[in-house]
Design goal:
The chain has 294 residues and is α+β, with helices and mostly antiparallel strands. It is built from eight helices and six strands, in the order βββαββααβααααα.
Length: 294
Amino acid sequence: MIKSMTGFGRCETEINGREITVEIKSVNHRYFEFSCRTPRGYNFLDDKLKSYVNSKVSRGKIDMFVNIGVSEDTPSEVTVNHQLVSGYLNAMKEISDTYGVSNDISVVSLSRFPDVFTVHKAAEDEEQITADVLSAAESALNSFISMREAEGEKMKSDILSRAQIILAIVEEIEVRSPQTVEEYEKRLLEKIKQTLDNNEINIDEQRVLTEVAIFADKVAVAEETVRLRSHFEQLKKFLEYDEPVGRKIDFIIQEMNREANTIGSKVQDAVLAHKVVDIKSEIEKIREQIQNIE
């Protein structure tokens, strides 16, 4: 099953007294690129989350956001920075003495100054926190992957639909191509007859056949259409793979475009030229789709 590289997943849960929220989103990228934002003091989670996500996702620009809330009954200790408080009091006394203003400092107003209090949380078990966050990440990632799979199915359907359009046009080219040779032969004979009628000179039929054969060889596109059909068969197989196939399909699309260009350089007929343009247009639409396939 092919997957899109665009996806989103979220999990919000409470585990062991902690409120944990994990969000993951991604856009297309040539390789795997991972960025994680965790709360201050929880940086030890980054590498573990990256490894876990990379075990499930091979391509895409991945952004993960983790928030960890602590329950109210979590023990903590508040301490006073006495040296800093003393400095604040001395500074305010100096202002009062120097400018003759009332020193009306209170505990409440003093507590509002920066860094007067320091909150110390109880030591946390990193292994337990890691296990809890990974549990939430698993739920978010499952939702994320499901969305990528659903998008991948839509893309697969669109690609196959466009493939059928291209193959139908290829069939029209295969039917039309021999007709262009016959039309060329008729035009050539008419021109020769117009030139020789007044001179009573016989037409060299062998020479005409040689010219027609040269033209037929020049405009023959059977090899290219056969290869084009082969590429589409390979494309269909790739779309059924369970492994990431975005890069493989990208290569196949390049080969398809090369065959279409070769056909376009060979055709000497306006009708066929327009059909080649239609093929290239559909191939380009497929190319745009596969840029987002994992």
